[in-house]
Amino acid sequence: MLFSAQDWQAIALTLKLASVTTVLLLVLCTPLAWWLAHTPSRWRAPVGAVVALPLVLPPTVIGFYLLVFMGPHGPLGQFMDVFGWPRLPFTFTGLVIGSLVYSLPFAVQPLQRAFEALGRRPLEVAATLGAGRWDCFFNVVLPLARPGFMTAAVLCFAHTVGEFGVVLMLGGNIPGHTRVVSVQIYDHVEAMEYGQAHALALGMVVFAFVVLLALHWLQPKSAQTTGAGL
Questions:
Q1: Contact call for residues 21 and 100 (beta carbons, < 8 A)
Q2: Do residues 159 and 102 touch, judged by C-beta distance below 8 A?
Q3: Long-range CB pairs of 49-56, under 8 A, 24+ apart, other chains included
Q4: In 3-state terms, what secondary structure has residue 172?
């Protein structure tokens, strides 16, 4: 068989992790991206720099500090202990939290650019027609910024699928719970199972190509929509 049972298990877990992370990031990052796109606050630059940190920090650094933060001596770990809740390291929930941090800029930055491209004019026109704040957002902002949301979703999903350092630091290598595709490939290589490693790695290459192709197709649509909105 091309993939073993453990390979399929890792693939299913990876897709689940990427899906959950993408949905949560789109929901959580939309207000942050809107604020960064429109605020005149002096905190805009520092907040933007913090958001972009995962782009330049090694994944193992992010994973290490998240592990310390969620560990038994960290603030979140101690908070969980007070209520008797299970600790987050080496769990799927811990992987989700790490993925949210690691893929944060891949959600915020496309959304921020999409919101900035809208300008104030469409919102002002909607307001003069009697539209409320929520009406403006759902009926004006979301349709016009749809390419930005699509780009953010594709990037977040793909980036989460390709994680290695963060998930290995936070989740270890527990089959069915924290072992994702990237870790599974690493295991195959360590066991000198190069055929299975090739199969999974080639699948990742094909997936990455499809993602880049999808982003290429999205860009012209984004430009057309922006031009129409202006």
A1: yes
A2: yes
A3: 51/104, 51/105, 51/108, 51/109, 52/105, 52/109, 53/105, 54/101, 54/102, 54/103, 54/104, 54/105, 55/105
A4: coil
Two structure tokens written together for 172 = 């270890």
Instruction: Supply the pLDDT for residue 149.
Output: 92
Helices 92-102 and 146-161, packing angle to 10 deg: 130
Q: Which amino acid is at 159?
A: H
- pLDDT beneath 70: ranges in the chain: 1, 123-124, 126-127, 129-132, 218-230
| pLDDT tens figures, 108-143 | 999 999 998 887 777 667 667 666 677 777 777 788
| Statement: the pTM of the whole predicted model exceeds 0.70 | yes
The tokens for 30 are 């939309």
DSSP 22-80: HHHHHHHHHHHHHHHHH---TTHHHHHHHHHHHHHS-HHHHHHHHHHHHSTTSHHHHHH
Helix (H, G, I), strand (E, B) or coil at 17: helix
Residue pair 181/147 in contact by the 8 Å Cβ criterion: no
Q: Which of 177, 14, 167 is nearest to 97 (CA)?
A: 167
Token digits of residue 104:
């944060």
